[in-house]
Automatic annotation (TrEMBL):
Gene3D superfamilies: P-loop containing nucleotide triphosphate hydrolases, Tetratricopeptide repeat domain, Winged helix-like DNA-binding domain superfamily/Winged helix DNA-binding domain. Belongs to the AfsR/DnrI/RedD regulatory family. Residues 1-92 bind DNA. PROSITE patterns: OMPR_PHOB (PS51755), TPR (PS50005). Keywords: DNA-binding, TPR repeat, Transcription, Transcription regulation. This is Transcriptional regulator, SARP family protein. InterPro entries: AfsR-DnrI-RedD_regulator (IPR051677), BTAD (IPR005158), OmpR/PhoB-type_DNA-bd (IPR001867), P-loop_NTPase (IPR027417), Sig_transdc_resp-reg_C-effctor (IPR016032), TPR-like_helical_dom_sf (IPR011990), TPR_rpt (IPR019734), WH-like_DNA-bd_sf (IPR036388). It comes from Saccharothrix yanglingensis. Residues 1-92 form the OmpR/PhoB-type domain.
């Protein structure tokens, strides 16, 4: 079997081309610690230090042995993990480890002196081995130090490759890439010299001289030193226009074949619909066309700046659809929400996560750390022809993390700000957008209303154009109003608008939109006007028919009719998913009308209804996703609130996906209403979805919001629950210190209450957190504390849960007698209390214990009984795990067909539940079943 081990990105392994599950972070760290020194013995003490640090737990050596044993099972084949001379060695071909392939390619490139074409081929191949940040997913101090060292090696190779490309005459193509590298390494003289030379060869000598001066000033300011002799000499030669610095006639450089992608990538088609009545903008479109012509050589970003409602997004989408076919690898689009009422700009990490989803990255394979997600995004789009539209950006800092790292993609950015940092720091082209000229404005109205009608009332059209000041948004609203009143002369509409009085159109064209909207607002029915105002206050970036019905108090069918009326009036827009959103200027105006015209009690009631709609529907979804989760005692919904009945977990996931942005915003709305219980309950009912989808940072965000709510809740049990969950949310994203701080706080609060159940449950959470941190001995310690507290309080039902946890951790630590003793005691208690779910979970533990001891018949019996109970309870999560367990004794007993059937079903369940790491583990066993039936 062919085995590949990846360290230059997420630590991963593939056997015969299929990904295998390497287990928890510390187990993966063991593999990495051996793979960096492939074919060499690493002492056990050094391995322990690399994995656990200078202060390892007492049973670290035993746990290390267990990790090595499990790695042998999943890797098998041509890789051997052997014990030699007090240590371990990974015996494999150097080419099986990507780090050593990278180093071998670099060494071969160094021997190719004088053959730049060959050196280019080898260095490009070496750079292509990297998939992201090295050793992603490992948190030990050794991994951090090794990561820094490896990234320095990568940086040297990138610089070596740049030198070769400069010699091959590719200086002009390198400008954008080196601009980014110079920003990342502002004090590196080698990078500065390469950037100066690329600028000079790109006929930008003035820019090169200016960059040298900036670099020199910064070097003196921060290091107290002048540039070195080589850089000073290069500056002198550029200053004197030395022709010898120009490249020889270019020689075609070979293009290294891109490495096969490690992760599946789909072709995204995210562009919203093109505007139907786009007119004019010939100069701006021509400028964008020029950028397209240059995009084959460098990253070109068009920062389309202008005031709200001036047509920036229309221009970007019109041009993007015109040239979408030039980007065969797809189009990505995101509204960064840089400007809008009562909304925070989108964090770049949220946009990157959305792009990873669109590119087909499975949730279980998305790194936790935002910087690692960014690295994965850049790796996936490298050498792909993608068009990326970043709409409504607030500043350069929001955009920069979303830029690809190679020159194959084209990025369009729209913003009300000029984003000068993007232009100066990243080589972006600037396309400034102004209001439409009179002729273009007339054509827009003619396109919307028909040439016959506008020609018949040319003077009225002139008046409408003048009143709108060339603002496309205002013209669209007016055109929509005129279409809705085909029998009313345009002159009458112009007179009505003129009588309202316009404000500062000459100085600020956007100011006129308020007048135009007020004119359109006057034409709405009372029902439409109320809905319009409430939509301006709705939480989240968009809304669907059901949420709108709860917000407005209308029946769903009536709410949909009103939404369509507002769409006809160009006051809301509907996207391809059937969801409605407002332009931020329209939304701001709508919110103003609501606060001005509606009774405060009615406003309050509407917001309470929509908050309860989201809370109660999410609660239903939470129960569908995790029937065994801690119950949440939500209060009855407000009068007139009608939550959705979600039929099953698939319906729940679909609803959570669609409403995710709104649900995050609902927590802020609930806090503004003073509904502190709802604030923490929202975090509670969204946890199952967040964990299933891998939205772990959003999960942490909601639980952080719940902290403020807990401080206002007089019930100490609430504070315990919130600190416990905040701690566990931190643990999920590997912020161990913060996790322990909150969990320790939860323990202290629970102890002060004298409530044994609260204290025990918090120790259980601590046990889970330590298990996530790969510290099974400490997990056992807290599970034992939970057991002691529950026994003292005579809580026999919960005691059974703690007994099973204790037994499980003893099993993981290879203490089979104690593991069996505690799990059998748990089983007896669960049976006595009629807790079938507890019985099933404990039988699953006993199956693992028997399997580890080689008692395959007994293991099969336990797993089969557990599976039967899980099926009776419709507990598909537990059933999937029991099915995975059943496969092991079946395979060991020489029944491969039955093992295969169990594992196929388990893998299918894991995939449907988005537990992709577990699915990959089972699928790797399926792939090996025919070859090694007795060793899986």
């Amino acid at each position: 079997m062919a085995v590949e081990i990846g360290l230059l990105g997420e630590v991963a392994a593939r056997v015969d081309g299929r990904a295998v599950d390497l287990g928890p972070a510390r187990q993966r760290c063991v593999l990495a610690a051996l793979a960096v020194d492939v074919d060499q013995v690493v002492s056990a003490d050094r391995l322990v230090e690399r994995v656990w640090g200078a202060d390892p737990p007492r049973r670290a050596q035993a746990t290390l042995s267990s990790y090595v044993s499990r790695l042998r099972q999943v890797l098998g084949g041509t890789v051997s993990l052997v014990r030699r001379s007090g240590g371990y060695a990974l015996v494999a071909e150097r080419t099986a480890v990507d780090l050593h392939r990278f180093r071998d390619l670099r060494s071969r490139a160094m021997t190719a002196a004088g053959d730049d074409a060959r050196a280019h081929e080898l260095l490009a191949a070496a750079a292509g081995v990297w998939r992201g940040e090295a050793l992603t997913g490992l948190g030990s101090a050794w991994a951090a130090a090794e990561r820094d060292r490896l990234h320095q090696e990568r940086f040297v190779v990138e610089c070596d490759l740049t030198d070769v490309r400069l010699r091959l005459g590719q200086g002009e193509q390198l400008v954008a890439e080196l601009s980014l590298r110079a920003a990342e390494h502002p004090l590196d003289e080698r990078v500065a010299g390469q950037y100066l030379l690329a600028l000079y060869r790109g006929r930008r000598a003035a820019d090169a001289l200016e960059h040298y001066q900036r670099f020199r000033v910064r070097l003196v300011s921060e290091l107290g030193a002048d540039p070195g002799p080589a850089l000073r000499e290069l500056h002198r030669r550029i200053l004197n226009a030395d022709p010898a610095l120009l490249p020889a006639p270019p020689r075609p450089a070979p293009t290294a074949a891109p490495p096969a992608p490690v992760l599946p990538v789909v072709t995204p088609r995210q562009l919203p619909a093109a505007p139907t009545s786009f007119v004019g903008r010939h100069d701006e479109l021509a400028a964008l066309d020029e950028n397209l012509d240059r995009s084959s050589r460098t990253v070109v970003i068009s920062a389309i700046a202008g005031s709200g409602g001036i047509g920036k997004t229309w221009l970007a989408l019109h041009w993007a659809h015109r040239y979408a076919s030039r980007f065969p690898d797809g189009q990505l689009f995101v509204d960064l929400r840089g400007f809008g009422p009562d909304r925070q700009p989108m964090d770049p990490s949220v946009a990157i996560r959305g792009f990873l989803d669109a590119l087909g990255v499975e949730p279980g394979r998305v790194p936790v750390a935002p910087h690692a997600q960014g690295a994965l995004f850049r790796s996936l789009v490298a050498d792909r022809r993608l068009l990326i539209v970043l709409d409504n950006a607030v500043d350069t800092a929001q955009v920069a993390p979303l830029l690809p790292g190679t020159d194959s993609c084209l990025v369009l950015v729209t913003s009300r700000n000029q984003l000068s940092g993007l232009i100066s720091g990243h080589g972006a082209e600037h396309v400034a957008l102004d209001v439409l000229g009179d002729d273009e404005a007339r054509r827009l109205l003619a396109t919307r209303l028909g040439p016959a009608r506008t020609a018949a009332e040319a003077s009225a059209v002139d008046e409408l154009v003048r009143l709108c000041g060339g603002l496309p948004l205002a013209l669209s609203v007016i055109a929509a109003r005129a279409r809705m009143k085909p029998d009313v002369p345009l002159g009458a509409l112009a007179a009505e608008l003129r009588d309202l009085g316009l404000r500062a159109l000459d100085d600020d064209p956007a100011a006129g939109i308020t007048t135009v909207l007020s004119w359109s607002h006057r034409a709405l029915t009372a029902e439409q006007a109320t809905a319009f105002g409430l939509l301006g206050l709705a939480p989240g970036p968009d809304i669907d028919q059901h949420a709108a019905a709860n917000l407005t108090g209308l029946e769903p069918c009536r709410a949909l009719a009103v939404l369509r009326d507002l769409e006809q009036a160009s006051l809301v827009a509907r996207d391809a998913r059937g969801r409605y959103r407002m332009h931020d200027l329209v939304r701001r105006y709508a919110a103003e009308t609501a606060r001005r015209d509606l009774d405060p009690a009615d406003l309050d009631a509407a917001l309470h209804r929509v908050v309860d709609f989201y809370l109660h529907t999410a609660h239903t979804g939470h129960r569908a996703l995790d029937p065994a989760a801690t119950p949440v005692d939500v209060a009855p919904p407000a009068p007139g609130c009608h939550p959705l009945p979600l039929a099953d977990d698939l319906a729940a996931v679909a609803w959570f996906d669609a409403e995710h942005g709104c649900l995050l915003a609902v927590q802020d709305t609930a806090a503004a209403l003073g509904r502190w219980t709802v604030v923490w309950q929202l975090a509670m009912v969204m946890t199952s979805f967040h964990v299933r989808r891998g939205h772990l940072h959003d999960n942490l965000r909601l639980w952080r919001g719940a902290l403020a709510a807990a401080d206002r809740d007089p019930d100490p049990a609430t504070r315990v629950l919130v600190h416990r969950n905040v701690g566990f949310a931190h643990a999920k994203v590997h912020r161990h210190e913060e996790a322990m701080r909150h969990l320790d706080r939860a323990v202290a609060l629970a102890g002060a209450t004298g409530d044994g159940f609260l204290l025990a449950h918090t120790h259980i959470a601590l046990a889970w957190a330590w298990e996530l941190h790969d510290d099974v001995p400490r997990a056992l310690e807290h599970s034992l504390k939970a057991l002691d507290v529950l026994r003292a309080g005579d809580n026999r039902a919960r005691e059974a849960v703690a007994l099973n946890m204790v037994g499980w951790y003893y099993a993981l630590l290879d203490v089979p007698d104690r593991a069996s003793e505690h799990c059998r005691a748990a089983l007896a208690l669960h049976r006595a209390h009629g807790d079938r779910n507890g019985v099933a979970a404990t039988l699953d533990s006993l199956g693992y214990i028997a399997r580890s001891a080689g008692r395959h018949e007994q293991a099969l019996e336990c797993y089969q009984e557990a599976l039967g109970l899980f099926r009776e309870l419709d507990h598909t999560y537990g059933a999937a795990e029991a099915l995975e367990g059943i496969g092991h004794p079946l395979a060991a007993l020489g029944r491969p067909d039955e093992a295969r059937a169990a594992w196929v079903e388990a893998a299918g369940l894991f995939r449907s539940q988005r537990r992709d790491v577990l699915a990959a583990r089972v699928e790797s066993r399926l792939a090996r079943l025919d070859h090694l039936p007795q060793q899986v």
